Amino acid sequence: MKTISLFLWLLKLLLTLLDTEGKKLQSEVDYYILSVIRRRGGGGLTLASTGNKTCPLDVVQEQNEVSNGLTLMFSPVNPKKGVIRVSTDHNIEFSAATICVQSTVWKLEYDESSGQWFFTTGWVEGNLGRGTLSNQFKIEKYEDDNNLDGYRHLALSDVPFKVMFKKA
């Protein structure tokens, strides 16, 4: 029995995401998402108008490498004790007011001209069910860092965007 308990404890530890202070990532707590490569990789994530549109605002990386960007929160689709875990579905929402009369919850949007999926905002948090996969995101481990599939406009890509989470 002790072996099984130890195994389950180690598995739980491996699936837990940690912030820059080594503490468990919590739901409904403000964090910054920062590039692991700070000097050459730019700053934190923020919102910006891209292309010819004003709204919704898109998820982009700050050009200024010392900027933490905007704070955001994770909301698990199926919350478990408020802890954010690897490979589980989450809504991600910036904790900021904007000029757009829309939410700052992330979603994916397909751009026909580039043939690429980009991260943008405007989803309704908690809107689950059929056809809502474009607003549910997973954080995965990549090498020894975290990966969000990914001024740089966040987009789905084969090249991982290695990130860390700093509590605000």
Automatic annotation (TrEMBL):
The keyword Signal applies. InterPro entries: Kunitz_inhibitor_STI-like_sf (IPR011065), Prot_inh_Kunz-lg (IPR002160). This is Uncharacterized protein. It holds the Pfam family Kunitz_legume. PANTHER family: KUNITZ TRYPSIN INHIBITOR 2, KUNITZ TRYPSIN INHIBITOR 5. The lineage of its organism: Eukaryota, Viridiplantae, Streptophyta, Embryophyta, Tracheophyta. Keywords: Signal. The keyword Signal applies. Residues 1-22 form the signal peptide.
